[in-house]
Amino acid sequence: MQDIQFNFERVWSIEPPGKHLLEGPVLSPDGTRVYFTDCFQGTIYEFDPNQPTVAPTEIYSYAPYCCNGLQFLPNGKLAACLWKGTIWPKGMLHELDLQHKPKPKTELRISHSTTGKQFRHPNDLAVDEAGGVYFTDLRGGHVYYYACGDTQAKSCLELDKPNGIELQMVSGKAQSLYVADSGTSTVLHYEIKSPGVIGKQIANQHFKIKHAVDGLALSSDGLLFVAEKGAVYALDAQLDPIGRAPLMKDDPPIPSNICFIDEKRFVVTSYRSFLCPNKAELFIGTIED
């Protein structure tokens, strides 16, 4: 299986007080910064991957909401997945204007589907060429599509616990969609017939560990990197595993999400077991030549 190899360096960690889960890394449009969240604290951080010894800077807090996935929109604003509540969670998508001074300004974008259903746990999102947003509702069991300018989102896919999501862009157009279903520990690949309309399933890969799969990221050469409960995996175009590595050899944390910085390097967010969620760590991965 080990057709490619990659290694990791821990660059930052956050510890008690409070419980922590790092999530949602995204590269800025100019490629100079990575933004990520401390989900349980509702906090967004800014990090310079080219100065990994410099600690990330907190730039905004959505507390008491939890803040999960992030993604930049064509207008330059940062879309954020928010949710609050354990038994009956309620969620929404916000847009954050990082250029607004003296501090970023946030605005509610959407909180309901076209059937009037309140989102429960927006988890991760991906943006197409028209500014439309595909996003997962982990505890709602749907993948939604929100067209730019609409006031509601339509369900385009129903899964057990849809989690990580990624678009494959071809000539600047969204051609297919990858989704991680944590409920079945499966990564699925679908064709996109038109914006918000999902076609046939192209491929899938099942992982043996229960609730295994989380965030997804495509490399520049089309490999799909998967944050899995025990390690980071690299999958080929058929979703067959061709590489695997834990974040650390001894007592490794659980990878949660992935964001590529360039052709060889990528950021990985992580957390410790939900039984002891008091520490979380940030890593930079490097694909070996």
UniProtKB/TrEMBL annotation:
<dbReference type="Pfam" id="PF08450">
    <property type="entry name" value="SGL"/>
</dbReference>
<protein>
    <submittedName>
        <fullName>Gluconolactonase</fullName>
        <ecNumber>3.1.1.17</ecNumber>
    </submittedName>
</protein>
<keyword id="KW-0378">Hydrolase</keyword>
<dbReference type="GO" id="GO:0004341">
    <property type="term" value="F:gluconolactonase activity"/>
</dbReference>
<dbReference type="InterPro" id="IPR011042">
    <property type="entry name" value="6-blade_b-propeller_TolB-like"/>
</dbReference>
<dbReference type="InterPro" id="IPR013658">
    <property type="entry name" value="SGL"/>
</dbReference>
<dbReference type="InterPro" id="IPR051262">
    <property type="entry name" value="SMP-30/CGR1_Lactonase"/>
</dbReference>
<feature type="domain" description="SMP-30/Gluconolactonase/LRE-like region">
    <location>
        <begin position="23"/>
        <end position="271"/>
    </location>
</feature>
